[in-house]
Design a protein that fits this description.
The chain contains seven helices and 18 strands. By secondary structure, it is α+β, with helices and mostly antiparallel strands. The strands form five sheets. Strands 1-13-12-14-9-8 form a six-stranded antiparallel sheet, covered by helices on one side. The chain has a five-stranded mixed sheet with strand order 2-3-4-7-5, covered by helices on one side. Strand 16 and strand 17 form a beta hairpin. It is globular and about 55 Å long.
Length: 332
């Protein structure tokens, strides 16, 4: 594990004092500027546009840093003001409560940089880069290894945390290392072993550390046309088997081996079942789609309904893969 310096060099105490004063003085204002950065915190920011479900309430505070220094300053601001931190990638595996999220939501989508190293075949990328864009970039260069990931609409950070996978491949199989930022401001470079990867899970799901960067091992030197053709095939397959035309979060439940969640839900007769604007997708029963105007609570209630129905029929409690943030109350 490699560590580096903490916050001290980034944001001075005097800066934070002025920040607190700024907050106290502008409670009705919408913006706070973090001194020494080009970064602003906003109050009461709707999160529905930042999740693939297109539902959810407001973040009490929201920030989307563009560099490591701004990210560190945002964390220090949260600590100084007793704000709980929630990290948001592309929001493609999240269900955010209609009541919103208290504290500070840190969106990583603007942490951008990528470097393909031909000497090592390694791709080093910042947390906010999107997985499909990287898959297409790698294919265009003739680098193999990311074709499977083209249909996963998340960021690098979210994929590393979730151990995203498809077509018998997953992040754990190709990750060389991930750089993470701890609450004390320390940066560490962790190996896949240190991240404790299992199926769609990692130790990072405890939510304490923020992924800032990741390095993946790819295989350069292939024919770009052939890699691009395989990537297109994967994309085509996904479009024909998954309901991309309505907002969704991908698979809602983890597969309880030896079954698949989709098969269990379908066999329970729930395909097409609808609660409010949320529906079990006709094309794939492990997807819940927002048919228009769904509330987060409709989706939450449908998740609970599916769990109870499958439990009654199969004595199996389906565990959600989607991460639920905030408070929910199921419709009785
Ligand atoms: C149409 C569709 C298809 C999908 N198909 C697949 C699939 O085939 N395979 C698959 O595995 N997933 C799939 N997903 C789910 C989702 O895309 C993945 O889980 C993805 O990895 C989530 O990335 P994200 O950036 O959107 O993370 P988010 O949804 O924003 O966050 C997910 C979790 O990671 C945390 N997080 C995000 N970024 C960071 C960071 N930088 N540091 C620390 N924590 C962070 C969040 O706090 C949250 O707990 C699909 C989703 C959709 C909508």
């Amino acid at each position: 594990m490699i560590t580096s310096q903490g916050f001290g060099k980034i944001c001075k105490f005097s800066d934070l004092t002025s920040l607190r004063q700024t907050k106290d003085n502008v409670d009705d204002s919408k913006l706070i500027y973090l001194p020494g950065t080009n970064c602003t915190l906003r109050t009461q920011t709707s999160l529905s546009a930042f999740t693939s479900y297109r539902v959810g309430g407001e973040a009490e505070w929201y920030v989307s840093p563009r560099d490591l220094e701004s990210l560190q300053a945002s964390i220090e601001y949260a600590q100084e003001n007793d704000l709980r931190i929630t990290v948001l990638g592309a929001g493609s595996n999240l269900l955010v409560s209609d009541r919103g999220i208290p504290g500070l939501v840190i969106a990583t989508r603007h942490l951008r940089s990528k470097h393909f190293n031909p000497a090592t075949g390694q791709l080093t990328v910042s947390a906010g880069e999107t997985i499909p864009a990287l898959a297409w970039d790698a294919a265009a260069l003739g680098w193999e290894g990311l074709e499977w990931a083209v249909g996963i609409p998340g960021t690098v950070g979210g994929a590393v945390v979730m151990n995203a996978g498809a077509h018998n491949s997953c992040v754990a199989n190709m990750l060389v290392s991930a750089q993470v930022l701890s609450p004390d401001g320390t940066l560490a470079t962790l190996t896949p072993e240190e991240l404790g990867y299992t199926y769609r899970s990692s130790l990072l799901q405890g939510g304490k550390q923020i992924v800032t960067q990741a390095t993946f091992q790819l295989q350069p030197g292939a024919d770009p046309l052939a890699v691009t053709a395989r990537t297109k095939e994967h994309k085509k397959h996904r479009l024909s088997t998954q309901p991309y035309s309505y907002p969704n979060c991908g698979s809602v439940f983890r597969n309880p081996k030896p079954y698949t969640a989709g098969w269990l839900i379908e066999q329970t007769g729930l395909k097409g079942y609808q609660l409010g604007g949320a529906q079990v997708a006709q094309l794939h029963a492990n997807f819940i789609v927002n048919r228009g105007g769904a509330k987060a609570n409709d989706i939450f209630s449908l998740i609970r309904h599916i769990q109870h129905e499958v439990q009654e029929r199969w004595s199996i409690w389906l565990e959600p893969e989607v991460k639920m943030l905030g408070e929910f109350s199921p419709i009785a």
